[in-house]
Amino acid sequence: MSADVAVDFGTARTLVAVSGRGVVVDEPTIAAVDLGRNRLLAFGTDAVGLRGRCAGEVAIVRPVRHGQLADLDLTSAVAKELLRLVRTWSVGQPMVLCCVSGAATSVQRRALDRAFKEAGAGSVRFVEQQVAVALGSGLRIEEPVASMVVDVGAGMTEIGVLALGGLVTQASVPIGGGDFDEAIQRLCARDFELTIDSATAEGIKYAIGSAWVEEDDKVEVRGRDVSSGIVRSVVISRTDVADAMAPRVDHILGAVVSCITSAPPDLANDLLNRGLYLAGGGALLTGFGKRLASATGIPVHLVEDPERCAVAGAVLCMATLGHTESVSRRRW
User: Fold this and answer.
1) Rounded CA gap, 134 and 245, in Å?
2) pTM (2 decimals)?
3) Residue 91: pLDDT band with limits 50, 70, 90
4) What is the pLDDT confidence band of residue 56, given thresholds at 50, 70 and 90?
5) Domains of the chain, with CATH numbers?
C-alpha cells in the first residue's frame, strides 16, 4: 500500500511529508528551467547551486509568488520532481494532500490536481493553510470554541478564525517575509545609495530587523554603490530597518484586526481566553508577536516549529481523511 503524501508548496520553501515518516523533503522553492526546451533542469538546492552559473537559455525562477502559482506548466514539472523525490518512502499511487492559500482559485486548484495526477498521484485533496496550521499547532478546531491562527509566510500571510471544524472568517494578505527583505533593499538604495541582494537583505532582517524596537542596534552592510558600482560599506540601525518594514507589518496587523472584528461577537470573546497562534517563517521577526498582541489586545503564542507547522497539520489531517473524502473550507 502506498503511503500518503502531504505538500506545503510555499513561496520560499517546499516541504513534503510522508505518512509514518514525517518531513522527507525541505527545499527552496526555486527551479532551474531550460527555456529553449521548456523543461525543468533542477529544483531546490540543486537549482540554487546553478544561480549565477547559468548560460544561454537557462533561467532560475520561482514557481510560487506571493503564495500563488506563477507558472502552471512549471508546476506540473515540479510536482513530478517532488513525487520522484519521495518514491523511496511512497510507491504506487499515493493520495496527495496539498496545503493551499485561502485565496487559491479554482483554476489553481485544478492545475495542482492535474499536475500531481499526471505525476502519478492516485488522488489529490486540498486543505486551507489556516486549517493545516491550526491542526499543526495542536488546536482542537472541531470544538464550538474559536481558535485563531496567523501564518506569516514568505509571500503570503494567511489569517483565520476557526470553530466547529472549519473557517469562520479568513483573510489572505499577499505580504510576507520576502516583502520585509524587499523593504530593506529599497531602504539601502534610497537612503544609502547602496545595492544589496535579497540574501544580504534577509541577513539584515535576522540580525537587526524588528517590528517592536526596544533597544536600537546597528550593523555594517556591504554592497555596491548605485552610481559607481564600487563595493562599499554603510552602517544601518535597527530603527532604520523597522521604519522601512513598518508599512508591510501594519498591513498585516490591519488584516488580523479586521478578521477578528468580522467574527461573531461570542467567538471573538473566545479569543481573549485562548489567544491567537502565530506561525510561518515571518513570525520569527523580532517583536512581531508583541506588536500583534498590542494591536489586537489578544495574547499571542508562537507555535512550536513555525516553519513546519502547516505540513505537520496536513499529516494529521491525512490520518483522519479517507481516500474518498475531501477537505473543504468548512469541514475537514
Assistant:
1) 27
2) 0.91
3) low
4) low
5) 5-30+63-131+309-320 (3.30.420.40), 133-175+246-302 (3.30.420.40), 177-244 (3.90.640.10)
